Amino acid sequence: MKITKMAIKMPILDELVANNEKVAHIESLYVGDMTYEECEVSWIEQGNYSELIAALPNLKHLTIKGSNGLSLTNLNHQKLESLEIASQCKQNIGHTTDMPVE
Predict the structure, then answer these.
(1) Structural domain boundaries of the chain?
(2) Rounded Cα–Cα distance for residues 31 and 4 (Å)
(3) 25-71: per-residue pLDDT in tens?
(4) Is 95 in contact with 3 (CB distance < 8 Å)?
(5) Which member of 17, 24, 30, 58 has the greatest number of CB atoms within 10 A?
(6) Distance between the two ends of the chain, CA-based, in angstroms?
(7) For residue 86, what is the enclosing H or E element?
(8) Which InterPro entries match (predicted)?
(9) Could you say which DSSP state residue 9 is in?
């Protein structure tokens, strides 16, 4: 799958990748858990998730809230069953994938 925009450097993503041996067991991840009062979905800044997804070999479900700066490139993951992107933006997000899409 390829979803690209100008990616923002996200320290939390880098930290998870750097410590992948400690988080390799994660099967489900939700990023951007905040209320409307804390931040509107359209204001949430994201980054490049490609390295993080590669660093989580057991990841089955990924939910990302917000799409500003979101980048997913060369996504080829053996166990990923679902990818959900919650966004209020009316954007065209192109994608290509080698993963089965249901």
Answers:
(1) 11-86
(2) 17
(3) 999 998 876 666 666 766 677 778 888 899 999 999 999 887 778 88
(4) yes
(5) 17
(6) 14
(7) strand 82-86
(8) LRR_dom_sf
(9) P
